Amino acid sequence: MQKGKKIYEGKAKIIYETDNPDFVIQYFKDDATAFNAQKRGTVLEKGIVNNKISAKVFEYLEANNIPTHFEKMLSDREMLVKRVKIVPLEVIVRNRAAGSLCRNLGLEEGSALFCPVQEFCFKRDDLNDPLINESHIRALRLATDEALEKLKYYSFRINELMLDFFQALNLDLIDFKLEFGDCKGKIILADEISPDTCRLWEVGTGRKLDKDRFRHDLGNVEEAYQEVLKRVSGKS
Ligand code: TMP
Ligand code: ASP
């Protein structure tokens, strides 16, 4: 597979063309940003760790009938993925209160929820990715009704699967963010699944093993990412 020109560069990844129009290369950087890029930094080898963790999670989800853009690993920092048109929504699923849910609803961090919470944010950096609802999505035609049903179904199903996956590694999946894409008319899971996009707390100790260590200057950021990789790779 020949690497072509850069198509898009985001905060944590770069997308390159390939010689096959159906596939692109997703390259993972060490750059980290938080609070809509107001805070910037680098996390050493984060790109390598997130590439490997995402690959493992995508393989697991594919094996459980969730269609994803993942094709194969190409190198430490690159994976080959299907070319998609990204749905301009971030789909968040929460199992316990943390982050913006605590800020918005006055909840204590870690408090229990009676059922998982699903949220949509409009992917618009210039607007700070605002929280929106299904009615906004329909009114702005951000997704068709059919696509919206798929996003809801897949994200809850992915939550069930990922709860099991991380529980087996002694990690509590507090919440996570997904992005989906349209691939030849079919909705598939895209982007990445990593400590950048999930909150993962060690069972028992509550130790945070995710990007909150970077967001809130908790220290040992690299160690946290490496610890998740070690568990996901079965080395712990
Ligand atoms: P939040 O509590 O800050 O809204 O974040 C919810 C989840 O979504 C958390 O696991 C982190 C993830 N997330 C992203 O992946 N990208 C983002 O830009 C934001 C704001 C959150
Ligand atoms: N990724 C987002 C940003 O760069 C926010 C976050 O993950 O906290 O701003």
Question: Any idea what the CATH architecture of the largest domain is?
Answer: 2-Layer Sandwich
> Any ligands, ions or cofactors bound here, and which?
thymidine-5'-phosphate, aspartic acid
Classified by CATH, the class of the largest domain is Alpha Beta
| Secondary structure category | alpha+beta
Assess the beta-strand content as a share of residues: 35-45%
* Helix and strand element order: EEEEEHEEEEHEEHHEEEHH
SS field, number of helical segments: 6
Helix percent reads 25-40%
Overview of the structural elements:
The chain is globular, with a radius of gyration of 17 Å. The chain has 2 domains: 3-82, Phosphorylase Kinase, domain 1 (2-Layer Sandwich), CATH 3.30.200; 85-221, ATP-grasp fold, B domain (D-amino Acid Aminotransferase, Chain A, domain 1, 2-Layer Sandwich), CATH 3.30.470. Helix content is 30%, strand content 36%. It is of the alpha+beta class and 236 residues long. The protein has helices spanning 46-63, 99-105, 134-139, 145-167, 212-215, 221-232; strands at residues 3-9, 13-18, 23-28, 31-34, 39-42, 70-75, 78-82, 85-86, 89-96, 112-122, 131-132, 171-183, 186-190, 198-202. Helix 1 packs parallel to helix 6. A hairpin with an 8-residue loop joins strand 10 (112-122) and strand 11 (131-132). The site of thymidine-5'-phosphate has 12 residues, from helix 2, strand 12 and strand 14.
